[in-house]
Amino acid sequence: MNINQKIDALEGMKPAELRLAWRNAHGTPAPPAFGISLMVRALASHCQEREFGKLTKAELKQLGALGRKDDHRKEGRISTEAKPGTWLSRTWHGEVHEVVVLETGCEYRGKNYGSLSAAARQITGTKWSGPRFFGLNSLRLGELKVAANG
């Protein structure tokens, strides 16, 4: 079975099958906060790493540099603007919340919001910076996002 077939198989699995696949891949139970789509993505990434190997630190750094909006940002920081199609996830009070960035705003649970901040406000009930709530201001996120997308 080639890598594309393996990933397609993951997308067709039932939750119990995904949890078993997680246990087989990692030797531990799947994190309770992981929703089905996050578990599929993490398992697909694991399959890709096993097939092609992990990216080196130099490759991760180079990809992180590509993600920065301009050269005037501090070393190690990334752009707080997420491109359309970017999927973001945040666990809040034990519940996983997922948004997809659109050309104008984002989609959260089937509804469109004008900004990440509007979605964060819907989730928390209080005023938040959307990029901060979803971790786009994190210094370590550049490394994590590149690794997750690798």
Can you walk me through this structure?
It contains seven helices and four strands, in the order H-H-H-H-E-E-E-E-H-H-H. By secondary structure, it is α+β, with helices and mostly antiparallel strands. The chain has two domains: 50 residues; 88 residues, no CATH class. A hairpin with a 4-residue loop joins strand 2 and strand 3. Helix 1 packs antiparallel against helix 3 and helix 2 runs parallel beside helix 3. It is globular. The C terminus is likely disordered.
Oligomer: single chain
Q: Count up the helices.
A: 7
Number of domains: 2
**Strand-and-helix sequence, N→C?**
HHHHEEEEHHH
Strand content: 5-15%
Shape descriptor reads globular
Q: Tell me the helix content.
A: 40-55%
What is the number of beta strands? 4
User: Taking Cα atoms only, what radius of gyration do you get, to the nearest Å?
Assistant: 17 Å
Averaged pLDDT: 81
Provide the descriptors you would attach to this structure in a database record.
4 strands, alpha+beta, disordered C terminus, 150 residues
